[in-house]
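Look over this today:
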Amino acid sequence: MTSQQNDKSLASSNCIEEATRLQVLDDYHILDTDPDIAFDRITKLASDIFDVPIALVSMVDEGRQWFKSAIGLEDRETPRDIAFCDHTIRNNEPMIVPDARADERFSTNPLVTGAPKIRFYAGAPLQTNDGHTLGTLCIIDNRLRHDFGDRQMEQLQDLADIVMAELDLRKTILERDQLQRMLDKALNYANVAVWELDTTTDQVKWAGAAAEIWGSDVSEALVSGDDAFERIVKEDLGQVQAAIEAARQSDQSYSAEFRINHPEKGMRWLAGHGNFDMNDGVALLSGVNFDITEVKQQQALSELLTRELHHRMRNLFATMRAIITLTRQASTSIEDYIERVEGRLKALHRAQSVLLNADFLSGSIHALMKEMSDAYPRIKWQGEQHSLSENAMVALSLILNELATNAVKYGALSNRAGGVKFDWTVSTTADDGTQELQFVWQEHDGPPIKNPPSKSSFGTQLIERSVRDNLGGRLERDWNIQGLICRIAMPLK
């Protein structure tokens, strides 16, 4: 490797080292901060010990030297290219200049030829544990000094190490505070309240999302354990206190779920977890709280839906059993039995499909009529959207199935010209203001009807019982010569 290549390699290495040093200096967040008495004490002590008018804690930035503390100098910074401390930084070791006017490096320096007329300089590097020099602790005199030897430099370095320890402490505190802020943000985002209970003084400290979970007044109103206990719902307080005492006696974790009276949100469910720690003989219970109200609500809803599903399944099987049994008794042949059972089971399926696509508890009349239109395209329907309970939905589906089946066999749907109009409206009775749903099934252009049926079939009985028992309504039928008109009225709940 040539000499020129060596020079380029060395320059590149120095640039990388300097960039790293500047980044480390930036990580200390010390530049351009306010004066600090901790550093001023050290520079004053250095001025007194070494009997000099000027003592500085100097940080060497990219283009300047900046003074964190300055005794005997009003300027807060000077350009780096005239800074004595820059030489200390570059050499990374203590430097003594007994007579600046006689030193070719500084004899023409404006800080020597002009104010503050530096004659003597001694600087000790401020070095991090991993070897990066941030600046110096330096002392300056405007008179020649040949009395500054190894012992004095050792003392100056000791003071520089104290400055560095103060810088490290300050950096640790800043990092701790930054981590605390990050933790607080994370706890707030995660909606976690953090607390610490001193069981001797009964004092509580709060952090994280405590104001969100316990109430916006948490820092003023809940300063003691008793204050927090008063916010817990009375019925749950005993088991919370018992869980805390059990954790204390057994040296195990504390865990409980309980309700509180939140001042802004009303009753809320919280989960609490914590552990006891001993600190100088004082038992501290530290823990967290989570708002589990939505989880509890989902559990309650799931239990409700499960019970409702079991209830529906029992009703469904009972209905299917009744249909199969009664259809068998009324059928004239095995083919007739299969056909009628299949049609009625399809009616049940239509009702269940509508219910399953909603909330299990109710279903849309529009959704049911769309299912009917798919099975019987010549049934035209019109009416406003309304929801019916599960029982009413099953009943209406069975009623429509019986009407449609009879229309296909004997009525308007038995020929190509006929059709059915199915409409419904809401009306209010004059007596008590109760609203009713009024359905009208009207067949047209079917075979002329001369007389109503001579006897009541099982399908007719099914319609009558469903209207009366399941819908709590009224039924009227008119065997008009143009086709059957069936009117059903039921309370709108």
